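Task: complex structure prediction.
Instruction: return structure tokens for all chains below.
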Amino acid sequence: MNQNLEIRRFLLQALEANTEEKSILWLKQKAQKIQESASPTAFFLSFSQASRYFTKDLLKLSEQEKNQADQLVSGFEPAFWNVLQSARSFLLLNLPEEKETWFSVMNQLFETGDMHEQQALFAALPILPFKEDLLSRAIDGCRTNMTLIFDAIALNNPFPAAFFPEANWNQLVLKAVFMQRPLYRIQGLEKRRNSALAEIASDFAHERWAAGRNVMPELWRLVVPFVHDQYLPDLKKVMSSADKLEQSGGALTLYECDFAPAKALLADYPKILASLESGEVTWEKIGKEYQDSRV
Amino acid sequence: MARYIDPHIHLVSRTTDDYEAMQKAGIVATIEPAFWLGQPRTEVGSFKDYFSTLVGWERFRASQFGIVHYCTMGLNSKEANNIPLAEQVMELLPLYVGKEGVVAIGEIGYDDQTEAEDRFYREQLELAKEVDLPVLIHTPHRDKKKGTYRSMDVAEEHGMDPGWVIVDHNNEETVKEVLDRGYWAGFTIYPHTKMGSERMVEIVKQYGPERIIVNSAADWGISDPLAVPKTADLMRKMGIPEEHVELVTYRNALTAFSLSGQMDENDWLSAPPIDQTKKLGGNSVLRGGQVPRVEGPADRVEN
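Output:
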């Protein structure tokens, strides 16, 4: 309950710095109504109509506010939210937390939400109550074909890494690869690498190569802890690519892994090795460049 | 190039070929009125998912072809006759009418002109007033003239401002009364029946361009998603001035439906260029191996 109150305070403060006063007044009024009302109608209407008062501009936060958010809920990154979804999340947190009623209202909202409403709902998962019971909702949400909604779950959101079982986690990561989403923005990506996912990643690369298509360089990050003989031919192929960015992905994999023949392979590329040793090449840089230049 | 709005088209029934052709022909925005699906729904959940599609997936799909998608929400007159189901749909509507891009309550009105149709038409007029939305009226195909007049009588009985009501599917027999009473008059161009483009040209010649709106109402039946641009071309050929063509195929629809506060010319004038690679999942509209369409500064189209 205290945490809920603190997050509400935080969001309201952030919104005040990002929005005109009349919108804040509207928001406070609706929040009050939601808390006091026995029927969910006021909540449904204000959740929809928030789009008339708040923009889809990115929420501007100071460094201090970003840290504060992370302290409130580890991994909470509202700097990636827009103003509208922040206002909607604020409204969500005003809903009385009586479990049965809460779920009946939330289920209805999830099932009837438009694109931007769903974006707000899924991105808010880490600050909502009853998280364990929202797992199936989150897994189901990943089945979307709307990038905006998939991103709300998969990117800059601590929920999947914290709650998804391995099979669902692997599907999420693979779908992100498939949709060419920036993997470096998936929280907990390294911590939750697993051998099954490494195999899936390699299989995926083979399929793409068979179809004469490229593989996103961030993919190889999934393989790092499991590099052994099985993956060496893949990495050799990546290293021989004419595409410098693909090569960077392969090289960083060889550099970070713990397999002697991989190190030997990397030694064949002294220039690249030097740039790796200087710390110039990171997964985030590779991911960003890929998004900017290839997607 | 001329810009068009098709203010009445059921895009859930159309293919991606249609979307591409519409975009090429100059259609920048579409309005999809909630309607029936060709066969009656038997569960309220079917309505819920349909309404969600209108504000979700279909809007997303349209955006990938550079077309801005709006919709209207309502219980259509045919299905109003299943009273227990209609009552449940009425409970569902408040969840959707306030959503972004919902530009009217519609299409509502009469089909067989039964008591049940009358009841739910009236209830939805009240809903429109409550949430400050215009109303899109579907006029019946049978006993059209009487049904059209009755729709307007009832709207007035409920205190609707005619300037907030679009009466659709007009013909030569109904247009005068509709315009005289201050309503917007929609015309649907059907390839074989009702209004053809030639008849439309004559109507605009006779009545002028004020408050007249052309649409395709293209759906799952024989219909033409390019009816609006084709009619515009015919109007030009027949000597109708360009300003008049613009009014009836673009500006009037914008003026009427932007009363909702949910439709703005900037939605397409300042929209980001189409970029299917940014928006698409590999298994959505583009299938594996297809080259995504990227409309850059050079307007490069690869497929």
